Amino acid sequence: MSDAAVLAVTDLTVTIGTRRGPARAVAGVDWSVRAGETLALVGESGSGKSMSVLAATGLAPRAARVTGQVRLLGTDFTASSPDRRRRMRGRHVGFVFQDPMTSLNPVLTVGRQVAEAGEEHLGLTRRAARARAVELLDLVGIPSAAQRVDAYPHQFSGGMRQRVVIAMALACEPDLLIADEPTTALDVTTQAQIVELVADLQRRLGTAVVWITHDLGVVAGIADTVAVMYAGRILEQGPVDAVFGQPAHPYTTALLAARPDPAAGGGDLVTIAGAPPSPLALPAGCAFWPRCPVRGDARCEHELPPLRPVSTRHHVRTFYPQHADGRAGHE
């Protein structure tokens, strides 16, 4: 695994103009991912996971104001022209989104859609791009790829459509694969197949992967590092074994406690009381404070905790880091 980051995000902030005022969707986040590594961004819906990645890759909404620095393969991506960003993104970044039917054009064959990126970004002829499409469909496990290359999306199951989308994402052999909730719309068996497929392709191709999800079970099985987001900020980040094995932030602890446990039988699910704050009115201090079971002193409400080290690569944003036994520590 290379030490150089494929994608590095520094102090990324995204503010979206709305009729009710500016909404801060992402607030000063830092993360990076290296070749062959999987970074998982986790948190509740609306925590800023997807928006941080869209902004980092130049796909934020037009109404968004993006600040900070993004480096893609060592190049200052934020300072590049829109055309250069488009070419870099098309050549070096592949995307797999949640619903394959919204990623595929229903009136084009899957082969045409897989081939298109090779023609546009690699300069392949139409014939060469079609042959490459067959290879890619075979690579991602589409049976009889040479025949099914001329089929349409509606002729595939949900899991097979997601495999087609992965083939599209890999068409230019990207250095980075963005997987945004890629298994949410699929049944459990198909989810496991897609997760294993991406992991296998990563091992073979050495691709860096950013996996956006709320499914902590998936994260535990595939990620090298994890960043836990809440209200647009990273509250905890580090190696997945450290963060899941010894969570230091009360929010991380609460998320892990809320995972369904089949061994527990039919008991009630653990939930986190309350709801995340509106991005239109974020508090000055810790955004998790109103829901926090630790609920420290007044500075939690009025002062933003710094991101501090728990160990060499494990960091947490709280005044009261949790000990391994769940007790709150103090500065």
Give a structural overview.
The chain has 331 residues and is α/β, with parallel strands linked by helices. The protein has one domain (5-107, 152-316): P-loop containing nucleotide triphosphate hydrolases (Rossmann fold). Helix content is 33%, strand content 24%. It is built from 12 helices and 12 strands. The protein has helices at residues 49-56, 82-92, 100-103, 110-122, 126-139, 145-148, 158-169, 188-205, 216-222, 240-245, 250-257, 299-302, and strands at residues 5-18, 21-34, 38-42, 64-72, 75-76, 93-96, 176-180, 208-213, 225-230, 233-239, 307-309, 315-317. Strand 11 (307-309) and strand 12 form a beta hairpin. Helix 4 (110-122) packs across helix 5, helix 5 (126-139) crosses helix 7 (158-169) and helix 7 runs parallel beside helix 8. The chain is globular, with a radius of gyration of 21 Å. Residues 7-256 form the ABC transporter domain.
| Shape verdict | globular
CATH homologous superfamily - what is it? P-loop containing nucleotide triphosphate hydrolases
Mean pLDDT level? 89
Spatial separation of the terminal alpha carbons: 36 Å
CATH class (first level) name: Alpha Beta
Number of strands: 12
Sheet with the most strands: spatial strand order: 6-7-8-3-9-10-12-11
Q: Largest beta sheet, briefly?
A: 8 strands, mixed
> At CATH's second level, what is the architecture?
3-Layer(aba) Sandwich
Helicity level, as a percent range? 25-40%
Strand content: 15-25%
CATH topology: Rossmann fold
Query: What series of H and E elements makes up the topology?
Result: EEEHEEHEHHHHHEHEHEEHHHEE
Number of helices: 12
Low-confidence parts, pLDDT < 50 over ≥5 residues? none
Number of domains: 1
**What is the radius of gyration?**
21 Å
Structural class of the secondary structure composition?
alpha/beta
GO biological process, one term: peptide transport
Membrane topology: Peripheral membrane protein
Organism: Micromonospora zingiberis
Keywords: ATP-binding, Cell membrane, Membrane, Nucleotide-binding, Transport
